[in-house]
UniProtKB/TrEMBL annotation:
Organism of provenance: Actinocatenispora comari
Gene3D superfamilies for the chain: 2.40.50.100, P-loop containing nucleotide triphosphate hydrolases
One Pfam family from the record: TOBE_2
Protein name: ABC transporter ATP-binding protein
Residues annotated as domain ABC transporter: 4-241
Gene Ontology CC terms, in alphabetical order: ATP-binding cassette (ABC) transporter complex, substrate-binding subunit-containing
Length: 381
């Protein structure tokens, strides 16, 4: 199927703010595109408009040269003629039908011959590795197994586009991990276009080829997962994508803000007048005594050390001076979080020296937009 294109699409329910505003989005053919954002950001509404379950109040939706929905032209193609399969958050399985009969349901509606139906059901169940449960009923299966049946039912009708509305949110952590791997394998094998709605950034980062970040009905950024993480388009994306989230430091009168301003004045004087805030990823902050001359170095008080097994998350608060023996942080700025993949010997209340590479500073202007930067010039020791 050609690209799915949404042009100036808006959706309003008549009261309150619009669910989606002037959305321009292209879902490439064969991509695994995640619509990512917090609750109420418009991602499910967008998915339902693509499926034909919701009608936009403005704009157009097309696949290649075929218009599926256009307010201005008065065109609307009903859901059953869009060649798309939709999997909901709840499994929506018929409890009185066996797994095989559930998967077969859509094929019966299409009046497919019995022999061909049986073969299609077998292929779909095998693809989702649930063929052993063909004669069981949904109540006899776990949540993850029921979700596999729900996906197999969609695969059986062979849709050109698979639309998934938070299908993993009802599963426990282990099952979610298994289903993420299953969906990624499915996409690699079938090459189907998949549009996946989620508020879980980990799902988006691990599965998607493209991530569309939405907030309050407005598209914030569309890019590959690591591009979204490494080069967030604005403060919202930087703060939303990442766990722990990006540390954001206002260039105010706190020590951390003053120190960052001094650092920028040394390395990026031409950009300093435009900078309102600086972002730093937790893994970019290192506890170290020595490093390159152009590092931002600050003394901090340790608030907590949180081991996760594979890493340590440490909260620190910049102190008011460079004296490690200072009794308490004063006007040091906001609490910052760092992530270390090596053992952290510091304990609560300890004083440490932290370093951040100049290349790891994300700059944002007054409107929250990212300020493009070139590589930092070398600074003599």
């Amino acid at each position: 199927m050609p690209d799915i294109t949404l042009t100036d699409v808006s959706k309003s329910y008549g009261t309150g703010p619009a669910a989606v505003t002037d959305l321009n989005l292209t879902v490439p053919d064969g991509s695994f595109t995640c619509l990512l954002g917090p609750s109420g950001c418009g991602k499910t509404t967008t998915l339902r408009m693509i499926a034909g379950l919701e009608h936009p109040t403005a704009g157009a939706i097309s696949v290649g040269g075929r218009v599926l929905d256009s307010v201005e032209r008065g065109v609307f193609v009903p859901p059953e003629r869009r060649e798309m399969g939709l999997v909901f958050q709840n499994y929506a399985l018929w409890p009185h039908l066996t797994v095989a009969r559930n998967v077969e349901f859509g094929l019966r509606v299409r009046r497919m011959p019995a022999r061909k139906r049986a073969e299609r059901v077998r292929q779909a169940l095998t693809a989702m590795q649930i063929d052993w449960a063909a004669d069981r009923y949904p109540a006899q299966l776990s949540g993850g197994q029921q979700q596999r049946v729900s996906l197999a039912r969609m695969l059986a009708v062979d849709p050109k586009v698979l639309l998934l509305d938070e299908p993993l949110s009802n599963l426990d952590a282990q099952l979610r991990l298994e289903m993420r791997a299953e969906l990624k394998r499915l996409h690699a094998e079938t090459g189907q276009t998949i549009v996946f709605v989620t508020h879980d950034q980990l799902e988006a980062m691990t599965m998607a080829t493209h991530v569309a970040v939405l907030n309050k009905g407005v598209l914030q950024q569309l890019a590959a997962p690591m591009e979204v993480y490494r080069r967030p388009a604005n403060r919202f994306v930087g703060g939303f994508v990442g766990s722990p989230p990006m540390n954001l430091i206002e260039l105010g009168d706190t020590r951390s803000g003053t120190e960052v301003r001094r650092q920028l004045d040394r390395l990026r004087p031409e950009l300093l007048p435009r900078v309102a805030a600086v972002g730093v990823r937790p893994e970019a902050i290192r506890i170290a005594e020595s490093g390159p001359a152009d590092d931002w170095v600050f003394e901090a008080s340790v608030g907590a050390v949180l081991p996760t097994g594979s890493s340590w998350t440490v909260s620190v608060t910049p102190t008011s001076g460079t004296d490690p023996s200072a009794s308490a942080p004063v006007d040091g700025g906001p609490e910052l979080y760092l992530v270390s993949y090596q053992d952290v010997a510091a304990t609560t209340g300890a004083r440490v020296r932290c370093r951040v590479s100049a290349d790891d500073l994300h700059l944002f202007d007054d409107d929250g937009a990212r300020i493009a930067t070139a590589p930092a010039p070398a600074v003599a020791p």
